[in-house]
Design goal:
single chain, 121 residues, mainly beta, Immunoglobulin-like, eight-stranded antiparallel sheet, 8 strands, 46% strand
Amino acid sequence: MRQWIVSLILLSLIGLIGCSKPIDFNGQNQSWRVDCSLDRSANEKAFVIKYIGKESKSVENVSYSFVNSKNFKFSGKSETHSSNLKISGKSTLDTPYVEEDRFTLSIKWNDKEEEISLVKK
């Protein structure tokens, strides 16, 4: 009986560890909304950068880089011309998760440049 109880407790703990919730970071300004998610149990991380500005001119020549993050080290460019641009990316975790409360996305487009602070939710 005692072994059965110990086994049940161990299985419960293993189940709880495997079902950890994703860690989310969010930020936005007048032009962009950024959502990042890190799922340790699935060993993956993802981001979405969406243009939410009101400019009638198409968004083009976008380059972005995550700054001061130990977990999100993405950077890239988009040559797409769109007034509702959405950039996304996903990858496996290449290093163990490092605890952090905030980091920054630096983004350039249409000869403009902004930094967006992303905060852990």
